Amino acid sequence: MERTRVVITGLGIVSPIGNNVPAFEAGLAAGVSGVAPITRFDASAISCRIAGEVKGFNPEDYFEKRDVARTDRVQQLALAAAQEALLDSRLDLQAEDRERIAVYVTSGIGGGESLESEVLQAAVRGPSHLSPFLIPKMLVDSIPGTIAQRFKLYGGTSSVVSACASGTQMLGEALEAIRRGDADVIVTGASDAAVTMTGIGAFANMRALSTRNDDPGHASRPFDKERDGFVMGEGAGILILEQLDHALARGARIYGEILSQAVTSDAYHMTSPDPEAKQIVRAMRTAIERAGLSPLDIDYVNAHGTSTPANDRTESFALQTLLGGRAHLVPVSSTKSMTGHLLGAAGAVETVACMLTIKNRLIYPTINYATFDPECPLDYVPNVARSSDVQYILKSSFGFGGHNVCIVLGRYAG
């Protein structure tokens, strides 16, 4: 049975290397690092004192002053990216049936900054001083609710949380919802803003974060032998997914097509990937098969590529297993080398990068790659962007809890 085709018609971004798509696009092409010393709180007592912070973001550009105090940073970043994506899509919301436009946006952490602030205050002043806005500020599903309320979109909201795979899984869920006929258009993606004392401190105590504090611009170094952990980032990536016939009927500009999703579970360990990578490979292979393709068709892999020893080794092994003798010929890169790891928002932000790869025929690099690791022997597009007429992209994301999520993206061919 022929499946409904779903295309991407709008992009929005807030990131450590740019607070809109043109700035993000330029930063990716130039191989810019957005990692720097933490400024949002005093990190002097933590082993990791660097992060990919969003810079120069003013929530009052998007919210009334009263509403800034009633929303968490994670909602503010998401709304900014959603506004850009909707404008970029050129959807005429006044002419559209807004009961057919849904909002599927998620987060790995949610409103952690608000929760931390309120708990610290309550410890001093007592629980009677907790804000009545704390619950909606911290809930993940308040993020799509905020977007739906602002733009009066009545097609339903959803937030699937699967740790650092959340954003990618949300895109896949939006794809399937359009194919089911639940909506014609879905505003989808993810946001995270966990550069807080709790967020950085807890990951640091797990020894998951890089401690290259004296050289922050080179700290996120996926697949490099000297990698010592990931660097946390913050931001939001939002995409407009649209049923193809709906997009064509309004003459929409199409960035690319989302072809498939596959989800598996390692069922191995809460925080470590299964070194045998069987379920990662199954997710990759299933996504490719559901797209009607074979591994021979994949032109580029946008990797999870966190810069941790275990993830990069396991992901490289999975790709070697999937691609076989062709593995060394397929370019693989991690834009986390530039942005840091945006947790649940990572996959959505990286899918925006994939659409820009298709648009510009340019694969964005893995920066800070200097030392070959024999356990990571693939072509990681080191340090410099590469021209390539990419047709099909495999995008992978993995998360604590053993989540494995893969989607396949393609150039729109009419």
Automatic annotation (TrEMBL):
Highest taxon of source: Bacteria
Pathways per UniProt: Lipid metabolism; fatty acid biosynthesis
Catalytic activity: (9Z)-hexadecenoyl-[ACP] + malonyl-[ACP] + H(+) = 3-oxo-(11Z)-octadecenoyl-[ACP] + holo-[ACP] + CO2; a fatty acyl-[ACP] + malonyl-[ACP] + H(+) = a 3-oxoacyl-[ACP] + holo-[ACP] + CO2
A GO cellular component annotation in the UniProt record: cytosol
Any one GO BP annotation for this protein: fatty acid elongation
Ketosynthase family 3 (KS3) domain: residues covered: 3-411
Record has Acyltransferase as a keyword: yes
Protein name: 3-oxoacyl-[acyl-carrier-protein] synthase 2
Organism: Candidatus Cryosericum terrychapinii
